[in-house]
Amino acid sequence: MLEPSNNNELPVIPDKRYFTIGEVSELCGVKPHVLRYWEQEFTELSPVKRRGNRRYYQRHEVLLIRQIRSLLYEQGYTISGARSHLTTDKAVEDSNCSKKEIRNMILELEDILEFLK
Q1: Distance between CA atoms of residues 70 and 82, nearest Å
Q2: What is the CATH number of the domain that holds 70?
Q3: Residue 39, pLDDT above cutoff 60
Q4: Which of the four pLDDT bands, split at 50, 70 and 90, describes residue 58?
Q5: Distance in angstroms (rounded) separating the CA atoms of residues 35 and 21
Q6: What is the DSSP string of the chain?
Q7: Is 115 exposed, middle or buried, given 0-12, 13-18 or 19+ CB atoms closer than 10 A?
Q8: What residue numbers bound the domain in which 93 lies?
Q9: CB atoms within 10 A of CB 70
Q10: How many domains does the chain divide into?
């Protein structure tokens, strides 16, 4: 999911459950107003909002932000191009997962068939 490129220069993500927008800004090298804008553009990015409309990001969202940053700033994608790239990646992951599950089911059914013979 995360393309390495220049993300090696970014700080290590601490082992925490939630991150504030300021922490995510530092971890991803992106200004807070950009993060708020990306929330509108990428539906996959939806941090938890608590008291006072404060945003709290989870680890998977920090990784997603790093991937979006890489697509936009390092690979030269447009917002719509990055959005479709993420959608395509998710579809490919889902189809690969489904193929593995189907293979496992077929193997299990063949085992059951052998047992019944």
Answers
A1: 9
A2: 1.10.1660.10
A3: yes
A4: very high
A5: 8
A6: ----GGGGGSPPPPS-S-EEHHHHHHHHT--HHHHHHHHHH-TT---EEEGGGEEEE-HHHHHHHHHHHIIIIIS---HHHHHHHHHHHHHHHHHHHHHHHHHHHHHHHHHHHHHH-
A7: exposed
A8: 5-116
A9: 20
A10: 1
Report the alpha-carbon distance of residue 83 to residue 87 in Å, rounded: 6
CB 52 within 8 A of CB 98: no
If one counts every other C-beta atom within 10 angstroms of the C-beta of residue 29, the result is 16
Angstrom CA distances, 100 to 2, 89, 103, 109, stand at 22, 17, 5, 14
Residue 91: is its pLDDT beyond 80?
no
Report CA dihedral (21, 39, 65, 92) to the nearest 10 degrees.
150
**Assessment of whether the complete model's pTM goes beyond 0.90:** no
